[in-house]
């Protein structure tokens, strides 16, 4: 496996919250991540822009659980010259913890990068461990996942059965960020609810009794609304160049549209089940009669139309 630039390898425990020696294993669960030199990016978390290689979590031996047995996994990459740690559930990016430029530089230049401590890595590992634990609990229901605005009015908390799961602040973003913390918080929560147990999406962020604060910035101005059929595309196009020049990743939340400008954010609602997601336009199509948008496999999975192939949808154009 060859990459451009300086390469550093980092082996992390998915269960622990502290860094450990690369030769050790904890609970036989590890994630191997490759990091390459940083490049700046105005489009977060797209392979072409971040220009990085990522190795999916792997088992350490034949008796270890593989990433296929784990609902949640961890990937490290760079984003705008800084370290980014993304948690995925069933291969769908759910939340990204942001480190610093110093974190990324330290990982790249360390003789033993597995001993480098970063708050973003620690937070990511802790969340992955908790999500995998929840997925094994027979009493867990994803309807119990909720989000509240905190008393400081600048952060949010995702809870499970009213117990804190993760705090969302300036160090956390939606992988395909809306650049609004409130909107990111709602999207992250709904992805967890959907992917952890097919719970219906929330439509608003709950207020804590102490906040007395009306959440702002959750709804982007809708430039136009259209209805039609949505389809999805994936395996045969994965890794190929899209119309905007980036490499297509079927697990990213993107879509093809005939004429919307690249980078446009579009809210898609499956009219058959009410599920909603925001996607980014990065390709052209579909060209079949009656179809107005062609979704990535990751987006189609969240909207619940992978098996049917097509579904009636409403799209709301939110701008860039």
UniProtKB/TrEMBL annotation:
<comment type="function">
    <text>Lytic transglycosylase with a strong preference for naked glycan strands that lack stem peptides.</text>
</comment>
<keyword id="KW-0961">Cell wall biogenesis/degradation</keyword>
<protein>
    <recommendedName>
        <fullName>Probable endolytic peptidoglycan transglycosylase RlpA</fullName>
        <ecNumber>4.2.2.-</ecNumber>
    </recommendedName>
</protein>
<dbReference type="GO" id="GO:0000270">
    <property type="term" value="P:peptidoglycan metabolic process"/>
</dbReference>
<comment type="similarity">
    <text>Belongs to the RlpA family.</text>
</comment>
<dbReference type="InterPro" id="IPR012997">
    <property type="entry name" value="RplA"/>
</dbReference>
<feature type="domain" description="RlpA-like protein double-psi beta-barrel">
    <location>
        <begin position="226"/>
        <end position="315"/>
    </location>
</feature>
<keyword id="KW-0449">Lipoprotein</keyword>
<dbReference type="InterPro" id="IPR036908">
    <property type="entry name" value="RlpA-like_sf"/>
</dbReference>
<dbReference type="GO" id="GO:0008932">
    <property type="term" value="F:lytic endotransglycosylase activity"/>
</dbReference>
<dbReference type="InterPro" id="IPR009009">
    <property type="entry name" value="RlpA-like_DPBB"/>
</dbReference>
<dbReference type="GO" id="GO:0071555">
    <property type="term" value="P:cell wall organization"/>
</dbReference>
<dbReference type="InterPro" id="IPR034718">
    <property type="entry name" value="RlpA"/>
</dbReference>
<dbReference type="Pfam" id="PF03330">
    <property type="entry name" value="DPBB_1"/>
</dbReference>
<feature type="region of interest" description="Disordered">
    <location>
        <begin position="34"/>
        <end position="68"/>
    </location>
</feature>
<keyword id="KW-0456">Lyase</keyword>
